[in-house]
Structures are given as C-alpha cells and as structure tokens.
Amino acid sequence: VIENKIDIDDLIKKSVNITGPTPPSKSKKADKKSPTYIKARKLVDDYVVIDFETTGLSPLDSEILQIGAIKYESNEEIDRIYQNIKPFRSNISKRITKITGLELEDVVNMPTFEDFSPQLMSFISCYTLVAHNAPFDLKFLLHQLNENNIELNQRIRVIDTLPLARRHFETPNHKLITLKDYLNLDNNSHDALEDCLVTNKVYQYIKHENNKIVQVSN
C-alpha cells in the first residue's frame, strides 16, 4: 500500500517508467455508471482486509501490481488471496522494484486484472472492506472494474483505518509502517499481503480502544 500516497513514499510511485501499447478501448454503455463505494457506519466482525501494490499513484496511468486480501469472520481469518498481477504495460521502474521487490519476471506470466477480477470480486462478495487509506486502494479497484466493464450489484462498504488511527494512536504520523512499529510487528512493508496483516492488527487495536471508550461512557 502506498499510504497517504503523497505523505508516504511520495516519490515512490511518481518514478514509474512503463511503456507499451495503449490498452484497447472497450465499449461502454452510454448510461453506465462507474462503480462506487460508501463508508461503513460501524465497525464489524466479518470483513475483508484489502491492499494493493501499484505501479504508480494514479489509476489513470498506473495499474494494480499485487493484490492482498484476507477474509475474517468473527474476527478470525478464514481465507486469503495473494496474487501478483500482470500490468497491461510491461515495464516496472527500478524504484518500484526497490520498494515492492517486484520485477517484470515476477508478473509477466501472471493473470491480468481483467482475468483475475472474477475471483477477487467473488472473494469480496458482500463483505465490508477494511483498508488503510482506503481511497487510494478503492480508486484503483473501481477504476479497473470500470475499465473492464465489470458492474457491481451493490456499492462496496468500506472502513478506512487511517482516519480512525488518527483518533487512537499517539504517533508522529499514521502511516502504516509507523503503526506497525508502534504495535511491535515485524511484517514486511510494501507487500500486499503483509500490509493486510498489519492493517488488521491496526483495525483490531482500534476496535479494542473504541470498546473501552464505549464501556467508560456507559
């Protein structure tokens, strides 16, 4: 995840140097609406934590490079997805490789987002999504769904742990890597699955702190 995406590793994904043919344009219905998401109104026990590594900051000229997703029911993990994705354009900059560890050879034989999206959306199903700096990941997800003419039956519900972390963590900043250190976690950073695991720890910490506040108020 490139959190804050301007305030974290701002330079990371501005250095993308991806070349290749322009993706084929796909016909869209004139009245087709782009998929959207809404903020969940409460913290939930059944959810999917999601994180993407991408080739840049904007979905307009960058793509999803790696998908991490972990499904929880009653706050216990029941399933996970960890998948490298082949971007339509072929080159990955050295800086992206330095940050994510991903090189062209790691993704060249992987499925494209279009190929993998049915499995991803089936995995997400009707679950609430949890993500750190959710607007970043969701704008990539929704853009690529729209580009591939994949329609949603309902809007995706999302919990963003970033603004919640600002309320509950007394840290210099609320980047995922900072929160990871605060919680004494040894997960690798800038790996989609590892970032999901950290995000879940952050989410559970937030839920615990929120419950203490509720108990005191009662």
From TrEMBL:
One of its GO terms (biological process) is DNA replication. The keyword Transferase applies. GO terms for molecular function: 3'-5' exonuclease activity; DNA binding; DNA-directed DNA polymerase activity. The keyword Nucleotidyltransferase applies. SMART domains: EXOIII (SM00479). Pfam families: RNase_T. Residues 46-212 form the Exonuclease domain. Keywords: DNA replication, DNA-directed DNA polymerase, Exonuclease, Hydrolase, Nuclease, Nucleotidyltransferase, Transferase. This is DNA polymerase III polC-type. It comes from Enterococcus lactis.
